[in-house]
Amino acid sequence: QVQLVESGGGLVQAGGSLRLSCTTSGSIYSVDAMRWYRQVPGNQRERVATLTRSGNTDYANDVKGRFTVSGDTAKYMAYLQMNSLKPEDTAVYYCHVEFYKSYDGETFGLWGRGTQVTVSS
Question: CB-based contacts of 97: which residues, under 8 Å, 6+ apart?
């Protein structure tokens, strides 16, 4: 069975840093992309950062210059380094993996259960 787990969330003061980790395991042929999202209760889930198989990255405008996504898609792993955190960054952060089960099959998506990040002023 495929599993995806996030970790590294916690409570931090504004201006501080946190590093989130995302690990995926299971029946996966290859990973095409790993993405970080965040969601505040009552709001839509927001895409924060993307890491592709080729190593390309993309960020939401609000986190550019503060967050950095890295990892190794071949190992089904991604990280999100969050610096200069603001109270408005408070949310549940989710990892999402886009993967193949075979060489030429369709892609599938899997969500983690999320990790809470709370930034105090």
Answer: 4, 22, 24, 28, 31, 33, 34, 35, 76, 109, 110
CB 48 within 8 A of CB 80: yes
**How far from 37 is each of 1, 27, 54, 108, 111, CA to CA, in Å?**
23, 23, 20, 17, 10
User: In this structure, are residues 114 and 90 in contact, taking their beta carbons and an 8 Å threshold?
Assistant: no
- Give the tens place of pLDDT for each residue, 82-91: 999 999 999 9
Instruction: Read off the pLDDT of residues 26-70 as tens digits, 9 standing for 90 and up.
Output: 889 999 999 999 999 999 999 999 999 999 999 999 999 999 999
What gap in Å lies between CA 96 and CA 35, rounded to an integer?
5
State whether residue 61 is helix, strand or coil. helix
Q: Which two tokens stand for residue 39?
A: 């969601």
Gap between the Cα atoms of 109 and 3, Å rounded: 11
Bridging pattern class, strands 115-120 and 91-100? antiparallel
